[in-house]
Amino acid sequence: MLLAVDFRLVAAVACVTFLLLTVAQALVLPRHPVETHGEGVLGSWGTVVRNRRFVAFTLCGSAYFALYNQVYLVLPLEAQRVTGTPAVVGVLFAVSTVAGVVLYVRVAAWAGSRWPPGTCVAAGLALMGAGFVPVAISAPLLPTATGLTPAAALPVLAGAVVFTFGIALANPFTMQLLPVLGSERLVGTYYGFYYLVSAVVAAAVSAAAGALLDVSGPAWRAAAPLALVAVGFVGAAGTALMQRRGQLT
User: Fold this and answer.
1) Domains along the chain?
2) Would you state the pLDDT for residue 210?
3) Phi, psi at 39, each rounded to 5°
4) Which of 27, 92, 167, 192 is deepest in the core (most CB within 10 A)?
């Protein structure tokens, strides 16, 4: 709704929200002593890099952020292209948010009671990749609209729902596995390494997706979403292989 008013209002509300969350965490989170160690920054990073299974899981899990960033790139651009209006971006975010609120806890609880965490992560990454399949199919077939055609956005919205299912599976169990594969003593360093690698991969994938979106011609419209499907499936396959070899326990 705020997008329909002014993007500056969106930014201001987001800033206030994060500020309130920061204050709430500062007031509520308990204090606890931090254990010191003599390894230093380089020594700590060396310990992380030498943990091969953690590095392998980080590379597989980086597919999560590479795909998640496309909620703000590929999906909105395609929704706007086929409907001819930027207002549909707000609808896309609303559908994704409502699906997340309704599904996240239920899906995670259901999967966690049946599968090990590694299997949940693999299934989640596969579903996140599969969320771009409807777009890959419809994009070459649907022309660029010059007027409001809401029905044209249905493939993007359907993909967003599938994508949200994947998030509900991948994210909580990835967070569960990181300290298992790392160590409690250097848990901050392990998390930092995971997010740094994920940021680099996400930036590279987003740049590649943007370059593919810039290629003209209807046949090329499927290139970016197909590449993202591949990213999800590669991450899922790598995670599943690690789970099968017993490397995620």
Assistant:
1) 51-244 (1.20.1250.20)
2) 95
3) -75, -30
4) 167
